[in-house]
Write a structure and sequence with these properties.
It is a single chain. The chain is mainly alpha-helical. Helices cover 74% and strands 4% of the residues. The two termini are 20 Å apart. A two-stranded antiparallel sheet has the order 1-2. It has one domain. InterPro entries: DUF3907. This is DUF3907 family protein. It holds the Pfam family DUF3907.
């Protein structure tokens, strides 16, 4: 991939990250565990604790990636290896953590991806604001996954080959 292509990909990725960061921050600033838990049973409490924890981690990973991409774009001379590593981290830390959250409060069901239905399935039916935030940012993370698929395989293969030579 040429340096110009990498730079444009950094710019578009950074814009997409900014949109999901803003949405997650707004949600997390306005919603806490007591506001989300409507039923006082242990399973519901556990579900929302995990949900909020996963969302906070995703926000941190997204903010770190946003800052690294900004650093790559602000340098006087574009450092392509640094930018490629930043893009790899967006995919590895951000996209993967969105689609495979640690606490598994939701997951992607690929069978629904081509039917026009929502591919995200929740382990327990969430309250409307929790469902809405995930559905809003899903589209952006799907776009990021499509844009950055290269970095999951080819970037690591290239790095391994460089170390062996």
């Amino acid at each position: 991939m040429s340096a110009v292509s990498v730079q444009k990909l950094c710019e578009s990725t950074r814009e997409k990250l900014k949109s999901v960061i803003d949405k997650m921050e707004l949600f997390l600033n306005e919603h806490a565990l007591p506001q989300l838990v409507t039923e006082e049973d242990e399973e519901t409490l556990h579900f929302y604790r995990g949900f909020l924890s996963d969302l906070r981690h995703l926000l941190v990973f997204s903010e770190m990636s946003y800052e690294k991409l900004g650093l790559a774009l602000r340098r006087a001379t574009f450092d392509e290896p640094f930018a490629q590593k930043a893009l790899y981290n967006v995919y590895h830390l951000g996209v993967n953590n969105f689609f495979y959250p640690k606490n598994e409060s939701y997951s992607e069901d690929g069978r629904y991806a081509y039917t026009g239905q929502d591919a995200i399935r929740f382990r327990k039916k969430p309250v409307r604001p929790a469902r809405d935030i995930i559905m809003e940012i899903t589209k952006v993370y799907e776009e990021l996954r499509d844009d950055l698929t290269y970095y999951e395989n080819d970037y690591l293969t290239e790095k391994r080959m460089q170390n062996q030579v």
